[in-house]
Amino acid sequence: MDRHWLPRGGFRAVSVVIVLTVGLVVASTAMAAPAASPKSTDGARASAAPVAIVTVAGLDRLLADVDYVFQTVQRKDITDLLRGLLGNVGNLKGIDRKKPFGVMLYLQPGFPPRPTPIVFVPVSSMDDLLKTLSLGPLNSHKVAGQTDRYEIVTPDRKFAMRLRKNYVFIAGRADFLGGALPDPVGLTRSAAAMYDVSVSVNLTQAPPMARDMLRTLVLSRVASQRPRTEGESDRHHQLRRAMAERHRETVDMILKQATDLTIGWKLSSAKQIALLDVALHAGRNTPLTKRLNSVTAGGSLFTGLFANRTVPLTAALSWMIDPAEGKLAVSLLESARDRFTAELSKAAARSGDKAETERVRQQLIRLFEPLIGTARKRHLDAFIRVAGNPPGHFVLVGGVGLADGKEFPTALDDVVKQVASLSGEKDVQPNVLTFGGVSLHRIQLKKLSGSQRAFFGEKPSIYVGANRSILWFAVGGDEAPPALKKTIGQLADKTSAAAGTSLPFQLTLRASSWLAMSSGEGKSKPLRDLGRRAFAKGGDALRVDYRPTEQGTRLRMTFGEGFIRLLGLAIATQYDRRRP
To answer: 3-state DSSP call for residue 94?
Structure first.
């Protein structure tokens, strides 16, 4: 097969495989290394351990992933092309196809520290690998008088190789490979077992000066404290500053105490999913780990509702905020209560009835007290669901758990009636519907944007009601009350399937529902068209889970097979477009 007929940039999967193996991986080393460097000792690697490692679990696993991607879109011709291309480079003979390979990134002395990439490749036969390397525009040979040293010679440069423990290490200079080299199997064992491809950053190997500079840069950009704005109250300004400081404190703790960050990707043809993990570690019993683990709460009131993953979007939050954040939440609610009280009291005072004004104030105190009490308990328990059948309009349904809300439904009824009476308008309608022990009040929305009308319809309303444990709400047109009724009924049905233990945060999104809302015009039309083809056979769910771990925290994104088809279709489309 003539490999030169391939269109430029056409078949990216082939490029990925080759880059991650021999030819272009070495080229990436060349770009990172200085063009001309003075000779130095084995101290060229300033860090004792790599500051970052890119790990591929094995050549066979990588090729199996590529096969699976194109199998989902029935493009065996592309996988056959890949196999033929690999045949042109001797099927990468000499490489152990079962073991991990990748790149270790070290730091050289000096400031700023310069990166030194070292490629590591498992070897089944060094003689065969040298022959494989010579099939391209390269020349490779053993260094005279050295038992474990080799060279790769290109028209422009030379690269050093060293063989240690059935692995060959490749770098831009021979002195980078001096001294003790780590065992790649030990370094990559955990990552290779969990992921097909991963990037791990060892934050402890970053020089203190560089880490301090990063801290300064990040903290200067996180939660900047804007000056007090015109019309902003002293209390609101103080709360905003306190929240900004809280954010800065958390980021500072992460930058000081986090030990490593891992991003991992895995395909599973058996489960027909793809996983993307982002994990941050800080070690057991560190202040950062304790803070990250402190967000885990007990059971959620809405656990059973998350079992329904057929709607366009479902999200649930069961989060323990820390005491400082709890105080901020209480202050925010007290500030909202005071502003609301002032506005309604002004309206009531126009009648000249002082008793009416005091009655309004007491009603608002009764309304806000359960909310403030919930903030003091520090457990934020909430749920939202987007329902609907695109291209029809959507309905947003949600609920917020109340710590002690036995007086809340009555207080809500009284306040809504008071607002309706004082406003003298029909935009606020108390007690329009009642079901499941929840009395619903309707607030008509006005001045909607075009996107809001497309989402909710021409005349959406907010519906709000409560029982003693949950504040319920819905936003939408005539479909909103039935959707809320269905949700409340599902929660009351004890036979509804539970979603397991309550995670601090979880979300499920159905991509095809959102694509169906699109008109299909504009610059993004090609991507929408590909998405509709990819999700036509299902597998359109994207699930996001956040959970603390013993040594830190992890965010996991689980993609259905439709997303894998989307990747395959995108590559195949580019290939078809560029082929002669």
So the answer is: coil
